[in-house]
């Protein structure tokens, strides 16, 4: 009898334990991502920031190199002009000398005066020749000084340009190194996303420290920079029916933003949309963000316009990295409307 009661208590304990296990929230319900997931998402986000800074520095260096090269070209033109002017002055002096020699026959000035029919006229000619010769000599000396100065300036400008160009090349190498590292990290992040979709369970929100979004409007685009791809209502082999949203072609790991304030009503993995987030806004409309590589919010979270809610990817039924963005009358599939005019009505042109 005692043995039977002991077995009964054991069965009750096991049933309670099973119930507790069944009641544990799954990752799809918002369980925080593990350290590895968080670290990779954070690394991708930081690499995006580093790549943006490197690109800005490279562009600044490129413009500086172009400006310095323009200064070198300007000095080369001035130097060429001085040399041409010097050559003309020398030619003028030679022409004066030859004319004087022909007029005087090569005789000394005293002999020319004794033999001249009009000595006074000869003296005036000699005076004019002396003045012209002196002017040409002064001009030549001035031109030589200017040429020397310009040549020195050109040398300094060339040295400065070479230094700026060397720095530009260094910045280009740094930029490429960051971009290569970012590309590798992107695909690692996508690998984690694919594993989540295959398991049918999200890893949960990865909280990222993002930079201040600055002054934003009440509504924003879902990604900051993008190229539009498939539009609402377009056809193709990829969809059973017409395309239900607007696609924004962006690299994996691109921060995805809430287009407006609202509450997260769904975070899900698996199926055609892969990893997705759905937000309900105050006006009753819902927006969906699909094919993500990671999420940064949990179901039930309140979000503001421009807040990061995930990182773009190519999970689910996707042929390449992009964000699938939908606007729906309800949170459910099948109630979508064209998101481009919907955003335009809220002061957010999409082009």
Report on this model:
With 351 residues, this protein is α+β, with helices and mostly antiparallel strands. The chain is built from five helices and ten strands, in the order ααααββββββββββα. Strands 1, 2, 3, 4, 5, 6, 7, 8, 9 and 10 form a ten-stranded antiparallel beta sheet that branches. Helix 2 (35-104) packs antiparallel against helix 4 and helix 3 packs across helix 4 (119-199). The protein is elongated. The model is unreliable at 1-32 (pLDDT under 50).
SSE layout and pairing:
Layout: H1 2-23, H2 35-104, H3 109-115, H4 119-199, E1 227-228, E2 246-249, E3 255-257, E4 262-268, E5 275-281, E6 286-295, E7 302-303, E8 308-312, E9 323-328, E10 336-337, H5 339-345
Antiparallel strand pairs: 1-2, 2-9, 3-8, 4-5, 4-7, 5-6, 6-8, 6-9, 9-10
Helix pairs in contact: 2-4, 3-4
Gist of the model:
It is built from five helices and ten strands. Helix 2 packs antiparallel against helix 4 and helix 3 crosses helix 4. Strand 5 and strand 6 (about 285-295) form a beta hairpin.
Q: What's the count of strands?
A: 10
Contiguous helical run count: 5
Helical content band: 40-55%
| Amino-to-carboxy terminus distance | 80 Å
Catalogue the unreliable spans. 1-32
Mean pLDDT across residues? 78
Tell the overall outline. elongated
Structural class of the helices, strands and pairings? Answer: alpha+beta
Order of helices and strands: HHHHEEEEEEEEEEH
Largest sheet: 10 strands, antiparallel
Rg on CA atoms, Å: 40 Å
Task: Quote the beta fraction.
Answer: 5-15%
